[in-house]
């Protein structure tokens, strides 16, 4: 039987709603980004994010329904992100979803945002099915996940400090590129040499799949200070490209090693950082060299959106696990 899911996402600075059929077919995907508001502060200001979600959420949900040519009476379940993320931001989506659920008698599904990022790949690749190894790299998290089944996850590695996207954002700030940093570092890197400076790529003992990105960030900052103290000129593009290379290389090597350890030949990329062209090229090469199949979503499905939440909610709804009026935001929710 067909299932129409309304997805709602408000965990950070995007207010988003989407209508998805059977977890795979997107009928609408409305995203109201607050980037222009937050960029003057150099990053997301949580309270301003919450206030803008409140202003936008009704219109975004209404827009998703009308773009899909549906109304609430057609919706079989509402899937909402309840964590991880900014608590005030999450509460806006959760409250809206609960209100609609109660008012219209529509079942409610609580979705983990990281699960959502992984699920974006089911939309992009209708034939993709678990098991596979997935790198989830975004502004808030960097995980290597073994997706055993649609609702079964094993974390193989995670960052011990900064997330990969967070490192991109910080380096962009240091280089004076502004927010959000990832796309700006990528653009500048195109005219730089990735072997100009050798920045650290942290490895832990025991073949561990964990990451650490605070060292590379500090190394870039120290390198720039030294050059400035000596009054030396430098090419920002070389710094950006060398930084990007260090991050991309470590993400690629750990993920491919994890896939080999799990004996799977399917490697999947997810999260905002997976929109990065250098990362995709690096994985393309590594996957080919190791006889693996590589999957990633188009950029608009890599960064925050509600279609991925609707898709994840669809698979969760199949397990029969629904939320109720007691659903709360969980800012540090684990997968
Ligand atoms: O998935 P996402 O939209 O939000 C979180 O769940 O965090 O990811 C946003 C992050 C930001 O840190 C942004 O700088 C990074 O993804 N990002 C990129 C690129 N596009 C977005 N990082 C590197 N290259 C990109 N092209
Ligand atoms: Zn995200």
Mind explaining what this structure looks like?
The chain has 335 residues and is of the alpha/beta class. It folds into two domains: 4-118 and 302-317, Nucleotidyltransferase, domain 5 (2-Layer Sandwich); 130-296, 2-Layer Sandwich (Nucleotidyltransferase, domain 5). The protein is 44% helix and 19% strand. The chain has helices at 35-38, 46-68, 87-104, 113-124, 164-174, 181-189, 214-229, 236-262, 277-289, 299-302, 307-318, and strands at residues 4-9, 14-21, 25-33, 77-83, 108-112, 132-137, 142-149, 152-158, 266-270, 293-295. The strands form two sheets. It has a five-stranded mixed beta sheet, sandwiched between helices. Strands 8-7-6-9-10 form a five-stranded mixed beta sheet, with helices on both faces. α4 (113-124) packs across α11 and α8 runs parallel beside α9. The protein is globular. The chain starts with a strand and ends in a 17-residue tail after the last helix.
SSE-based structural type? alpha/beta
Radius of gyration: 20 Å
Task: Give the bound compounds.
Answer: 5'-O-[(R)-(carboxyoxy)(hydroxy)phosphoryl]adenosine, zinc ion
Percentage of β-strand residues: 15-25%
Question: How are helices and strands ordered from N to C?
Answer: EEEHHEHEHEEEHHHHEHEHH
Spatial strand sequence of the major β-sheet: 3-2-1-4-5
Number of domains: 2
Second-tier CATH architecture of the largest domain: 2-Layer Sandwich
Describe the main β-sheet briefly.
Answer: 5 strands, mixed
CATH level 3 topology of the largest domain? Nucleotidyltransferase, domain 5
Q: Give the helix proportion (percent range).
A: 40-55%
CATH superfamily of the largest domain: ATPase, nucleotide binding domain
Number of helices, where a helix is a run of at least 4 consecutive DSSP H or I residues: 11
Shape: globular
CATH class of the largest domain: Alpha Beta
Mean pLDDT: 97
N-to-C CA distance: 28 Å
- Unreliable parts: none
Number of extended strands: 10
